[in-house]
Here is the input.
Amino acid sequence: MRFRERLKGNEVGPTRWYASNPTALDQLQSIGRRIDSGIEQISIDNSLGDPRLKLRHSGLDQVIELQLESCGTRQFIKLFPFIQMALERGSVAVVDDIDSAIHPLLLLEIIRWFVDEKKNPFGARLWMACHAATLLTESTKEEVLFCEKDSQGRTKVFGLADIEGVRHGENFLGKYLSGEYGAAPILG
Here is the structure.
């Protein structure tokens, strides 16, 4: 198993990956047009040595370099290679704080890719950490793990399915937010 560094760094690595994977760049363009109605084209510019990703938006008379795009667009563009490689290879994509800059509807779309047999013919898996509690409305109890810190700062991980009495179809979100399952921060 090979781990990658956090995605918070610069965009050079992902841009090089897109430059060497034109099919993935085409897929990114297709997704980009669907998730951001203003994106018309995503291209690679090699004129200054290292490849640079540029985006053309409707209504703008110039292209925008990736580092000037919104945090969410940049985060998705950096995340997509890991997701795409996992789906192509049937491997595991592990992403921490996936919801930190990804729109909740796009996050649901990414999750659906992993359950769609056409997009995921090799059984790839997505392991993600997030704070988007609303995903509990879209999840089965077998898909949910909670992390909870004790008073000494140690983290315990446990599955929703391991909690006695949890039934399929119950309001996981409501019960989590009310503190019934634990693992919710105590505020106040």
Summary: The beta strands are 39-45, 52-57, 64-65, 92-95, 125-128, 145-149, 155-159. Residues 130 and 137 are 14 Å apart (CA to CA). The longest helix spans residues 71-89.
